[in-house]
Amino acid sequence: MSIDLDIQAILSSYAQLTLFILMLSIGLSQGYKNLSLLWRKPNLLIRCLLASFIFVPLAAMIIELMIPMSFSVRLGLATMAICPGAPMIYRKLLKGRALPDLAGSFQVTTALLAVLVVPIWMSGISALYPANVTIDVATVFKQVAQVQFIPISVGLAIHEWLPDLAEDLKQPVFKLGSFLLLGMLLVILTIALPEVLTAGVLPVLGAVLFAASCLLIGHFLGGPEPESRLTIAVANSTRNAGLALTIAAANFTDPGMVGAIATYALFSSLAGAIYSNLYQKKLAKQEQKNST
Asked: Transmembrane region positions (predicted)?
């Protein structure tokens, strides 16, 4: 699927604005106490960081070696793999057996650390494909800082030092972010569906394997507690499509990347919903069996 470069630029600007507002909303609502929840569990923190920043990109590399795909599709997969901390994690895990506070801590932690890790991974991608990819690490650092690090930091500071202002801003910013997110999801869905229908079997298989890999990595590294395992699995699988779109549109001229990112975002969302539903049903059955 080909996407006009002007449309790609507009999509990039829209994704940046949406991500900025959403990250500001997260900072306003979470505060340092919730942020530190994961940091107070160092073993779980290390496993989460390994899952999100190391094992998911490695899984993407293995999938790309196993399945023949076009360069734009592989680049889209790689970009999604290195962008954790999606702004919809906390909302996705507000219901059911998951732990929203843990999800929020995971989200904020990975989003803040992404300002360092994402540029490093992008420089690695550039080194692997010197003839096709030219990345200015400082530019990527600035992009991630502008849409994630700065708004979260501002939100956290307001939450801690101006709590009344944070309380007043929290709902309006949340509603604005939700409205913008809905628009971005509709755009992604509009792009992804034709991409899925025309991509062929192999790219779709790659997207399915990637989504499953993210869930399995989070599941097995999420700890022995079922609620923690459920939370980390879904959080780890929900990659930051907004950040990936921002990086892709700002640094690459290959329009196929945007469609590939949208496709992976769609399958990751579907896989996370299916996993969450099945795992919670399994836990309910186990508890019912143990009680009888």
From this structure: 14-32, 44-67, 73-90, 102-122, 173-193, 200-221, 261-279
CA dist 35 → 91, 208, 240 (Å): 16, 31, 18
Q: Residue 184: CB partners within 8 Å, gap ≥ 6?
A: 14, 15, 18, 242
Greatest alpha-carbon pair distance for the chain in Å reads 64
- CA–CA separation, 275 and 234 (whole Å): 8
pLDDT band at 90 (very low <50, low <70, confident <90, very high): low
By C-alpha distance, which of 99, 108, 179, 145 is closest to 247? 145
Residues 6 or more apart whose CB falls under 8 angstroms from that of 72 comprise: 254, 255, 256, 257, 260
- In this prediction the pTM is 0.88
- Among the residues of the chain, which ranges form H helices? 5-39, 42-49, 56-66, 71-81, 89-92, 100-128, 137-144, 150-161, 163-199, 201-221, 226-237, 241-251, 256-291
Asked if 77 and 260 count as a contact pair (C-beta separation under 8 A), the reply is: yes
DSSP state, residue 50: I
CA dihedral for 142, 48, 232, 236, sign (positive or negative): positive
pLDDT above 90 covers a percentage of the chain that reads 38
**Residue 100 burial (CB < 10 Å; 0-12/13-18/19+)?**
middle
Residue 56 has a pLDDT of 97
Closest CA relative to residue 261, chosen from 245, 237, 280: 245
Closest alpha carbon to 273 in 265, 283, 263, 261: 265
Report DSSP letters for 73-141, one per residue. Answer: HHHHHHHHHT----TTHHHHTSSTTS-HHHHHHHHHHHHHHHHHHHHHHHHHHHHH-TTT----HHHHH
